[in-house]
Design a protein that fits this description.
There is one protein chain. The chain has ten helices and eight strands. By secondary structure, the chain is α/β, with parallel strands linked by helices. Strands 4-3-2-1-5-6-7-8 form an eight-stranded mixed sheet, sandwiched between helices. The longest helix is centred in the first third of the chain and has 16 residues, at about 55-70. It has helices at about 20-30, 45-50, 55-70, 75-90, 95-105, 120-130, 155-160, 160-170, 190, 205-215, and strands at about 5-10, 110-120, 135-140, 150-155, 175-185, 195-200, 215-220, 225-229.
């Protein structure tokens, strides 16, 4: 039996040259879906990150806080309209290395799996354009009136990327032989340890140290240069 190989990708900072959640929140504010004061929740951490006085994790968690605070009660149609505008504007803001790798693996008939902490409703249209077979992200509950409740469905599932990989491999009849994994933070270590070819792309400090200890491939894309370190 010829079992299909799998390639697993993180999305934000790995394929997309920003965060889909950050760009979604900014678009929701620009479109008047979220109030302008939503930025106050994360603006301080954003500045600290840009000035290298704080860390990116604190910044992104503040954006998550803003999203959770203001998504409750928002009609899905308004959210979807903002997503479509954001995707149209940022659809090509991708890294050359990972975009080319995805295309290459697609030609080699790999099963492409994306796992991210961004909202699945945003990930689906972004990843579909790149040819992904399956996408996992945070699912925000929608009530009977088509408005967000502010709750996350099955949050425990998206918190463990390794379990997601195991589930998909078993369900789809895939093989981890010659498998590929691409991630950029320590949150991706659990699935990178499972694959035959782990690639740490633009890794943060924690993942970089882990990669060096384990002899994993480290790739950096800076401006128009891609190199291994």
């Amino acid at each position: 039996m010829n079992t299909k190989k799998v390639a697993i990708f993180d999305v934000d900072g790995t394929i997309f040259r920003s965060s889909l959640l950050i760009e979604t929140v900014e678009t929701l504010i620009e479109e008047g879906v979220f109030p302008p004061e939503s930025r106050a929740v994360y603006e301080k951490e954003k500045i600290r990150w840009l000035e290298r006085k704080g860390d990116y994790e604190s910044y992104i968690m503040a954006v998550v806080e803003a999203f959770l605070k203001h998504i409750k009660g928002i009609h899905y149609a308004d959210f979807k309209r903002a997503i479509n505008l954001m995707i149209l504007k940022h659809k090509d803001r991708t890294y050359k290395y990972t975009k080319n790798l995805i295309a290459k693996l697609k030609r080699q008939r790999y099963y492409l799996l994306a796992i991210s902490q961004s909202p699945k409703a945003v990930l689906d249209p972004f990843c579909k354009r790149l040819g992904f077979d399956k996408v996992y992200g945070r699912i925000y509950e929608i009530g009977p009136t088509d408005r967000f409740t502010g709750k996350i469905t099955d949050e425990h599932l998206i918190g463990n990327k390794a379990n997601i990989v195991k589930r998909v491999v078993e369900k789809e009849g895939l093989t981890l032989s010659n498998s590929v994994g691409v991630g950029d933070t320590e949150g991706d270590i659990s699935f990178l340890e499972m694959v035959a070819r782990p690639i740490c792309f633009n890794p943060n400090h924690i993942l970089y140290k882990h990669a060096k200890r384990n002899g994993w491939k480290v790739v950096v894309e800076r401006k128009d240069v891609v190199y291994e370190i």
